[in-house]
Specification:
By secondary structure, this protein is α+β, with helices and mostly antiparallel strands. The protein has 1 helix and 3 strands. The protein has a 3-stranded antiparallel beta sheet with strand order 1-2-3. A hairpin with a 4-residue loop joins strand 2 and strand 3. It is rod-shaped and about 105 Å long. The N and C termini lie far apart (96 Å).
Length: 96
């Protein structure tokens, strides 16, 4: 911390991971530091990450369902046309 003017360091204290952020105060010549447990600082980020994962999974399923329905609405008339063409071809070949 003394070598750097300002920044952030991570260290282990009493078997707990700590994060310290520090910066000098030019008017006094002092350096101020704020220290917190890494688990406290990262808890919200982990919660948001889990929430994002759930939300993205739901969105992927909804988009996949929409794509399936759109593809089905496009291919159903084509399959019906193929079936009609087969029936027509079988009828024509039976008359010959």
């Amino acid at each position: 911390m003394l070598e750097q003017k300002s920044g952030k360091i991570e260290y282990l204290f009493e078997d707990r991971q700590k994060i310290a952020s520090f910066t000098p105060i030019t008017e006094t010549g002092w350096t101020i530091a704020v220290v917190a447990d890494a688990s406290e600082l990262l808890a919200l980020a982990k919660r948001i990450g889990a929430l994002n994962l759930i939300l993205m999974s739901v969105i992927v399923m909804l988009v996949g369902g929409a794509i399936f329905l759109i593809a089905q609405s496009i291919t159903r008339p084509m399959l019906q046309a193929v079936g009609f063409a087969r029936t027509l071809a079988e009828g024509i070949s039976a008359r010959s």
